[in-house]
Amino acid sequence: METSKQNSENLNQEMDVLMKPPNMIAVDGPAASGKSTIAEKLAERLNYLFFDTGVMYRAVTWAAIDRFGRTDIEAAVSELARTIQIDVRPASKSDGRKTDVLVDNRDVTWEIRGPEVDANVSQVSTYPEVRAALTDQQRRIGLQGKVVMAGRDIGTVVLPEAELKIYLDASAEVRANRRYSEILRRGGSASYDDILTALRRRDEIDSTRAIAPLRPSDDAIIIHTDGLCIEDVLMKILAYIS
Predict the structure, then answer these.
(1) 131: domain range?
(2) CA atoms of 130 and 80, how far apart (whole Å)
(3) What is the CATH number of the domain that holds 91?
(4) If exposure means fewest CB atoms within 10 Å of the residue's CB, which of 15, 32, 33, 119 is most exposed?
(5) 91, part of any domain
(6) For 72-106, what is each residue's pLDDT tens digit?
(7) In this predicted model, what pLDDT tens digit does every residue of 122-149 receive, in sequence order?
């Protein structure tokens, strides 16, 4: 009887562990796959920290363009990544932003989403010293737990310890249309064809780079988001948690 009772208690403890949300969740995927939006919504549901690591690379890219007018001087960009202060804070304005992004106390939230940054951020992300400088900061935040971290190499490099790893994917055409619509909603102007071309080029760079190439981790749950709304994707992920 004692053994049966003990086994029952052990089973209940195991079930309790399984029912608890993962302490660290990694959400990866290519540009405009919806990973930031989904990660933000998931973090809201779980009352976790939402951390889009891509803003760090965008901030370094923007800073290099602002200070040097170019991003192809690897040594200079790497040194910049080590010295500038990048802060990510809760959104202070109701203009569609998910967070405030500051570089040396300057608000660059929308500047880092510009087409020039789009065209150069993949190059900057291939620089080993830039990735090392930013990965250390990302891991420090992620390992504190209760975090949903979005990026391109979270499950494979930045946070391989994450208990739940999601990889979101979508066709280039669907992703380009999402980015195009986002720009129009903000009152900007853009060419769908230009965005599609830039996305395809970025996919090629991200997936073939020598350092931390874009790919799902072996234990990632892959979700194709073509034809799915945000709530559909969110419910698919929540099914693995509850």
Answers:
(1) 24-235
(2) 9
(3) 3.40.50.300
(4) 15
(5) yes
(6) 999 999 999 999 988 877 788 999 887 788 899 99
(7) 899 889 999 999 998 889 888 988 889 9
Residue 240 lies in a domain: no
- Helix, strand, or coil here: 148? strand
Q: Which two tokens stand for residue 204?
A: 């090629």
H or E element, residue 164? strand 164-169
Report the candidate in 49, 117, 140, 137 with the shortest Cα–Cα distance to residue 89: 49
Residue 5 lies in a domain: no
In a domain, 206, yes or no: yes
CA-CA distances (angstroms) from residue 138 to 91, 148, 158, 222? 19, 12, 7, 23
Q: What is the pTM of this model?
A: 0.74
Residue 156 · residue 139 · CB < 8 Å: no
Q: What is the 3-state secondary structure (H, E, C) of 20-34?
A: CCCCEEEEECCCCCC
Joined together, the tokens standing for residue 150 give: 């979005």
Q: Detail the DSSP E strand segments found in 86-141.
A: 86-90, 99-103, 106-107
* Total tally of structural domains belonging to the chain: 1
Which residues of the chain, if any, have pLDDT below 70? 1-19, 242
* Beta bridge partner(s), residue 26: 149, 165
DSSP 3-state of 228: coil
Alpha carbon of 157 to those of 42, 105, 120, 153, 210: distances in Å? 21, 29, 22, 5, 13
By the 8 A CB rule, do 206 and 54 touch?
no
